[in-house]
Structure formats: C-alpha cells, structure tokens
Amino acid sequence: MAKSGIGKRRMAALRDGGEGYAQRRNEIIAAGAEVFRERGYEASSLRDVAARLGTDRASLYYYVASKNELFQLVTQQAVEQVVSAAESVAAEPADAVTRLRKLIVTTVQKYDEHYPYMFVYIQEDMNRIHSESLDEVWARTMLQLGRRFENALLTILNQGVADGVFDITHKHIAMNSIIGSINWTHRWFKPSGQLSGEQLGAHLSSMIISGLAK
C-alpha cells in the first residue's frame, strides 16, 4: 500500500530531519507519556496530546503516524533499558541474595528514571494492546522483552534455591509475585515523593528477600 504524502514526509524527516526534528519529536513523545499516564491509553487521543503541546492534531502526523505508534515510542526504549539492566545483574558473579536485591533496586530506579514512560506501559492491559496492535513486530518485541526479564529473575531464584538460601516451592509463583510487587508501585509512586527510586527499591527488596529466605 502506498504511503500518504504526510507519511512520505515523515519518513524523510526521520532520515534527514536533523536535531530540530528529533527535539520536537521527543517533546511529542514526552507529552504523549503524560497524557497516557493521566487518561489511560484507551481514553487518550492525539488531539489530547496536541492540546498539551498547544498545537493542532494535524501537525503531529509529521512526527508520528498514529496514537498506537506514539504509545510504542513512549514505552519500548524504557522497557529495553529495564530488561538490559536486569540481565546484567543476573549475569554478575555475586551470590543470589545480593543479585536479587540489586535487580529489584535497579528496576525500581529505572522506573523512576523513566517516569512516567514505564508506568504508562505497566498500567495498561498489555495483552489487549499487543493483540490490537497493527505492528506485529513491535508486539512480539515487547513480549520477548517481558520473557527476558522473567528469565533474568528466574536465573537468580534458581541459584538461590540451589545454594539453599531461598525457600521456594513454586519458582514461577515467586517470580510473578516479585514482578507484581515492583509493578504495583505504578499506582502510588511518584519521583517527587518522600522516597527516591533507590530507597523504594531497597525497602521492597528487603521485604521480598525476607519472605524468600530460609
């Protein structure tokens, strides 16, 4: 299917647009993150994003093709960095308790660093968005990133069980409980609050490790 005129201009600008184009696109992505965070993906529109920027919706199509693409831009880079950090921690030579503590703290720090981008992703029904996405490559990429994070966490839990420091009967239940505890912070954590991401991660890791320890 042939691209529209604005689609061709957008592709050319992505390739050759320079610093000014990239800066404006990043401003749109940041505004999109704020709108998705406040209103939710389903209730948000590009018109809302345009209003946040004080411009009209038509001007946004020079930078993004759709609300769905904007959501992808908001979330994917942040998720990739979270997963990469978790895999690096899992590969370290430290003992399982040290690595689990560091993975939890690092993950919450990344959520803080990428606020509200990560929380936009977490608060949505991602299975629904994946199934509705017209971009199957993006949907598969995000599902694979989720599995990579799970595998990094399972690597640490398996080592802790093998070393006799974690008392875990069902490792997948433990894994999902840990991920759920971290992700639920999207309901109440704000970087401007009393705790930093590092401090919150330290509190969470202490509670989680206490629950797993023999």
From TrEMBL:
The keyword Transmembrane helix is annotated on this UniProt entry: no
Alphabetized UniProt keyword annotations: DNA-binding, Repressor, Transcription, Transcription regulation
Chain residues forming the annotated DNA-binding region: 45-64
Domain HTH tetR-type positions: 22-82
Pfam families for this protein: TetR_C_24, TetR_N
Superkingdom field: Bacteria
Gene Ontology molecular function: DNA-binding transcription factor activity; transcription cis-regulatory region binding
Record-given protein name: TetR family transcriptional regulator
Protein species of origin: Acrocarpospora macrocephala
